[in-house]
C-alpha cells in the first residue's frame, strides 16, 4: 500500500504560478512511476504529467508542455508539479498517483494508488 497526500493548491491569477507537492508513505517510493492528473467539473480525469522512478524520464500532456514541470525527491518521498503560465482552463482538482510499471503511463487505469486531490483555481 502507498498513501499519497497532495498539497499546494489554491487560487491564482492567470499567468501566475503554483507548486503542488505529493507526499508518499508506505512502500518504497522510489519503486513507483509517479503521475499527476486533473479533473475539472463535468469532465473526465485527464493525464497531466508523469515521471519515472529515477526521475530520469518525464512525460507531459500537450496542453501543459512547456508550462509545467514534474520532479521528484526520492529522499523525501515527494513528487512535485511546478505550474507556470497558468490559464483559467487549468482550473481543476489535481491528483497524484503511483504506478508499479514504467513510463509511459497516461491513463487512470495505469495507476494503482491515488491521493485525495488538491483544488487549483485560476482566475481570469
Strand content: over 45%
Assembly type of the shown chains?
single chain
| Structural class determined from secondary elements | mainly beta
Please tally the helical runs, counting DSSP H or I stretches of 4 or more residues: 0
- Helix and strand run: EEEEEEEEEEE
User: Would you report the number of β strands?
Assistant: 11
Q: Describe the biggest sheet?
A: 7 strands, mixed
Q: Separation of termini?
A: 40 Å
From the spread of the alpha carbons, the general shape counts as globular
Q: Mean pLDDT across all residues, rounded?
A: 96
Uncertain stretches: none
Radius of gyration of CA atoms, rounded to a whole number = 13 Å
**What proportion of the residues is helical, as a percent range?**
under 10%
